[in-house]
Amino acid sequence: MRKSHITPIDKEVEIPDNKFLVSKTDTRGIIKYANTAFIEISGYTEEELIGSNHNIVRHPDMPRTVFKLLWDTIQSGKEFWGYVKNLSKDGSYYWVFAHVTPSYDTSGIKIVGFHSDRRKPRKESVQKISQIYAEIKKAEEQGGLEAGLKKLNEILEMEGKDYAEFVFSI
User: Fold this and answer.
1) What is the pLDDT at residue 142?
2) Distance between CA atoms of 84 and 63, rounded to whole angstroms?
3) DSSP code at position 43
4) 53-88 as b/e, with b when 16 or more CB fall inside 10 Å?
5) How many CB atoms lie within 10 A of CB 15?
6) What does each C-alpha distance from 50 to 120, 140, 157 come to in angstroms?
7) Tens-digit pLDDT profile for residues 106-152
8) SS3 of 124, please?
9) Of 15, 2, 99, which is closest to residue 48 (Cα–Cα)?
10) Which of 57, 73, 102, 161 could cross-link to 86 by cystine, CB 3.0-4.6 Å?
11) At a CB cut-off of 8 Å and minimum separation 6, what does 153 contact?
12) Secondary structure (3-state) at 94
């Protein structure tokens, strides 16, 4: 399924404390599995999600910089933790604290896809990261992805942390 244009609306859907949104993709980000919680919160049917690129739920407020960092991290075989604002099919949004890991073939050497589990983030963390993402997004709008990466690195340098340390500290 191709991503259709969905107009975002200012309506947040909160993930219940006991829910984990789980998906599995191939190496290109094509969804191969979506659990019931992900289906319910995203507003898509299982049939609409399976075979679609995971960016079907990408909210336009999210900086491209964060996804570049995510992809660089998981393609190098490392796990990624981060805050993500997603877009539901009806235009509402939901914030998640995402954990994305590579999945390997039986030899344990070749990456064959990615596993993502997402949970409800703390409100205080979302407030902080929203402001930071707005700064990065503004930098991207003025100077592209390179400017966004520069802004993120400036923020991390000021904090004296790498991205993973930073997201766990807010």
Assistant:
1) 97
2) 10
3) -
4) ebebbbbeebbebbbebbeebbeeeeebbbbbbbbb
5) 21
6) 23, 31, 39
7) 999 999 999 999 999 999 999 999 999 999 999 999 999 999 999 99
8) helix
9) 2
10) 57
11) none
12) strand
User: Which residues contact residue 165 at a Cβ distance below 8 angstroms, ignoring those fewer than 6 apart?
Assistant: none
By the 8 A CB rule, do 15 and 96 touch? yes
Supply the DSSP symbol for 52: S
Sort residue 51 into left (φ over 0), alpha (ψ -120 to 50) or beta.
left
Name which of 26, 22, 52, 50 is nearest 38 in CA terms.
22
| pLDDT score, position 2 | 46
List the chain domain ranges. Answer: 21-169
The model's pLDDT over 66-112, given as tens digits with 9 standing for 90+, comes to: 999 999 999 999 999 999 999 999 999 999 999 999 999 999 999 99
Distance between CA atoms of residues 36 and 57, nearest Å? 15
Q: What is the DSSP letter of 54?
A: G
Residue in the block written with tokens 């539901």? 88
CATH architecture of the domain with range 21-169: 2-Layer Sandwich (3.30)
Give one DSSP letter per residue of 95-139, joined into a string. EEEEEEEEEE-TTSSSEEEEEEEEEPPPHHHHHHHHHHHHHHHHH
Residue 40 vs residues 65, 66, 71: alpha-carbon distances, Å: 28, 25, 25
Hey, is 48 helix, strand or coil? helix
Q: What is the separation of C-alpha 119 from the centre of its chain, rounded to a whole number of angstroms?
A: 11
